[in-house]
Amino acid sequence: MDRAREILEIKTGGLVVWTKGDMHFVYRGSKYQQNAKHSHTFLTNVHKGYLVKHNVHTTLLKYGSIGPVLINNYGEADDAFQENDQSICGQKDEEPVKGTLYEREVNRLLDTLGPRFVDWWWDTPLPVDADLLPEFVPGFKTPYRLCPPGVRPTLADEELTYLRKLARLLPTHFALGRNTRLQGLAAAILKLWEKSLIAKIAVKIGIQNTNNEQMAWNLKHLTGGTVILRNKDFIILYRGKDFLPGGVAQTVIQREAQVHDEQVKEEEARLKAVDSLQMVGELSEESSLGTFREYQGFHAKFVHENTENSNTMIELEAEKYRLEKELKDHEWKLSVLNKKIERSNQALAKLHSSWSPSEQSADREHLTEEEKIMFRRIGRKMDGLVLLGRRGIFDGVIEEIHQHWKHKEVVKVITKQNQTRQIMYAASLLEVETGGILIAVEKLTTSHAIILYRGKNYRRPAKSSFSNLLTKREALRRSIEVQRRGSMKYFVRERQKSILELKRKLRYVTRQIRYRTP
């Protein structure tokens, strides 16, 4: 709203006297000069006697009339406006101070970078219009950078947070609306970095096909800076710890060239001095200790040149190191899983030691096929059932089956197991522990039904508890351990597959390194 008020006063030459919501009331002033082209409209508005009312969301301005005496809506003279008329006119005649010292310095700096973006929608100062800067700059190249000794070139998390907080308070330096051809903007940013650590760039609103990611990548490539923030509104670039101003960079480059020339001259003078000496007797082998030739030989032998082959070797060595480290981590995790499986096996063995299955009676009752079909039909139609849950078979399940057999000859046991081997094992175990006869195992929609017949000579057991079976709590512990061991076995298989794949990749990378090594 402050920016809208400022634009309104600049465009109209009036004075905003009141702001209410999204409405601005503008006073035209006593020295307002009517436009000849719209004189009829202004003369009509003079007789209406209203102040100007401006809506921010529209571009229509209704000019009211302020004559010698202001008239309000009731047709009476408005003394308040009449008294303040002279004071307002006095303020209009005086030359105001344009901003603080900081704002004037920022405006002076931005004036040296390029033309301003006059349609800026936020607070002043107005940023530089980056779209008006030249697309190409002759002789432009990425600046030379040199990090001070003992300084890490990358930013730590605390430094990044501090720079983002600092950038939040800074004014916007540039307004950008195109994605490519940003050499002029890059040159202006380099000039700005000589005075400021951060360059704050706003993305223009309402321009089609703007891509802030492409803008940030191009600017980073041209300037060599660091992008510390990028979103749909702003791109903030940090100049970096290795940034050198233009004059300093040229001085450093010239100094390095001078040092190199001096080293070459010293080497040439040393060789001439060696040739001029007349050695008596057998000539000894020439020594290069402490010479420039030794330095060049060291670099040729140990420092890789910036070629495609050396870069490929570096990438292969890095990949080999990464694979070896990852393989070592996988092997360590596999050993941990194996130890956990051993502990789980020990816990299951301890639980199984307290359980012993019953012996099946040799004198079993035999049923005819007609009787089996009849009991099977009865069992399928039964509503009462025994649910075999995650605990499996324990003493409570056997007691519940005997409770059903107290009133009925057939019992239906429902199990949620999916594997046929597990279902048949549970059915045979129930037949042995209960002393009944297994009639059938039926497939239902989402489960299986085990139908058991108690027998013609059935007698209810004298003791209510079965000491050879697990209790309910022990059965739950067994179920948890079995599930835990199954999950760990699955992860062991997956880990072994990963180890085999890593070993295969490591062998391939090793062969590539051996092939490229001279």
UniProtKB/TrEMBL annotation:
GO CC field: chloroplast stroma; ribonucleoprotein complex
CRM domain residues: 153-250, 365-465
GO molecular function: mRNA binding
Statement: the UniProt record of this protein carries the keyword Metal-binding: no
Keywords of this entry: Chloroplast, mRNA processing, mRNA splicing, Plastid, Repeat, Ribonucleoprotein, RNA-binding, Transit peptide
UniProt keyword annotation of Transcription regulation present: no
Any GO BP: Group II intron splicing
InterPro entries associated with the record: CRS1/CFM2/CFM3, RNA-binding_CRM, YhbY-like_sf
Organism domain of life: Eukaryota
Subcellular compartments: Plastid, Chloroplast stroma
Alphabetized Pfam families for the sequence: CRS1_YhbY (PF01985)
Protein name (Swiss-Prot/TrEMBL): Chloroplast RNA splicing1
Organism per entry: Zea mays
